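Q: Can someone sanity-check these two? First one:
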Amino acid sequence: MNQTADAVDRIFSEESRPVLATLIRLLGDFDLAEDALQDAFTAALETWPKNGLPTSPGAWLTTTARRKAIDRLRHLRIVEATRSELALSLRLDREACDSHYELEVSPVSDDQLRLIFTCCHPALSREAQVALTLRTLGGLSTAEIARAFLVSDATIAQRIARAKQKIARACIPYEIPDRESLAPRLDAVLSVLYLVFNEGYLATSYEHLVRRDLVADALRLARGLAALLPNEPEPVGLLALMLLHDSRREARVSDEGDLVLLEKQDRNKWNRPQIGEGVRLIERALRMRRPGPYQIQGAIAAVHAEASTAADTDWRQIAILYDQLLGYERTPVIELNRAVAVSFAVSPVEGLSLLEDIERSGALEQYAPLHLARADMLCRLGRNDEAFECYERALPFVPNEQVRRFIEQRLHREKTAEANVGHQTGTKSPSGANPV
């Protein structure tokens, strides 16, 4: 029984998002699809221990969920149903009785791509697009999305509910739009795909650093988008960016489960074939001579990936690329990343000067990487007491357990070293600190 329950958990992680996308296409209703999927997994827990796992779990779940949806709609027909619900129920009934209808409906690979274009329809606000996509395609809970965007659970729940209602009221089609209608949605689709990837690459609320399921989903969708639009450079650039970041996955966590910083990573663990693919994709995108932010970020990732050691990193080139990126998106986070690059390319003093401009705006006060970047620059200047304060300032704003543990270990080491020095000399003295 335990083995079957474990298998259901694994299958839920692997199949729930593609199955949900297919159900939304079949049923045309987000809430009905989500309820039916939960009913199907409940049925799986009851049936699979007795009958064994099906050959195609995704197809079994899709078919079972569809039948559960029909049962729900039949109940609504008895109680109180809208005209559209009755029409949908009758259509599904006819299909179920049609001998030519294939009952074992497998999730379609394009369904998630269709769904993301639906979620990113221009009729929805950007906040609603992001929340709905992270919920349906990313599989994040309302609480996880709320923590990621520093808002209340109720705010996110309201955004998601309103987005679903708007899609239903406006009869927004569940499809990949034609090329004329594609442009207004492409930027949003790229942005949301990258958000899904980032949530997997550095999970905001998760015991592990990486959510491999989200990374895999984002990569698969990015590949599908790049294949759909081979002459559009930005989808190609986004795919390259994801591949290059993900290529470092195995080196980002030690055997003990601790975070390993970029400069300390064992580069022999980096996925070289994946790096090669990412670099080729960036070169292909740049040859189209229509640069954009994802191509530039991909180029930055390529500079890091191609350096054989941390000391070989071409920080001047990275700083130049961040200057170019600011021409497309002048955000505090990009300015922070540029300041870090300048701190290595020129000096920590210059980097700290740039950080002061960002800090005065107050936009990143609750953004842990700002405080960690400042701590690193201060450490390199030997100003360890000030760096210590920055680590402590970052701690309340770090939801990921591994990153939090990294900072706590750093603080513990510095406190221990400081106490030892004070005991030996009779005075308090700052300890040395490694760069973040």
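And here is the second, same format, sequence then tokens:
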Amino acid sequence: MSQAIAHENHLHPADHGDSSEIQLVTFHIGEEEFGVNILVVNEIIRLVQITLVPNAPYFIEGVINLRGKVLPVVGLRKRFRMPEKPLDANSRIIVMELHQNVVGFLVDSVSQVLRIKKSTVEKPPAVVDGVGSEYIEGVGKLDDRLLILLDLEALLAETDLNELGK
């Protein structure tokens, strides 16, 4: 798989031709299914103790200790301004590398790893202007469902990481 697709802005078919594929980690937040490029995912972990951080941005759940390294955890429900939901046995933290920082993203559940053809990915419709729409890179059309592909660059800008003291 080409390193060129490591950056989320390379999801559209015009960039690479119709025959190429991208491999995604898919997860749920509420009823919606999202995907991120597997190349930015370090690992997926079960919930661990999350320590609150005073004066952190609203979307930061806190920090975790992952094998001796302290990582911030972004609550994607909070980031998308969705109603809170109690954490449960399906809740997961997806550990990703972004802007040379390792960050955890709290999601309701992780679905699967899948490959889709880039030709099935479309830019989000202009009509999509709801909460969190600025974080959508594209929409993947699968046989029986749509998959929202997240733009991680927009989701967690460097300024947000600077607020965390990174």
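A (reply): Looked at the second one. The first helix runs from residue 13 to 16. The first strand starts at residue 21 and ends at 29.
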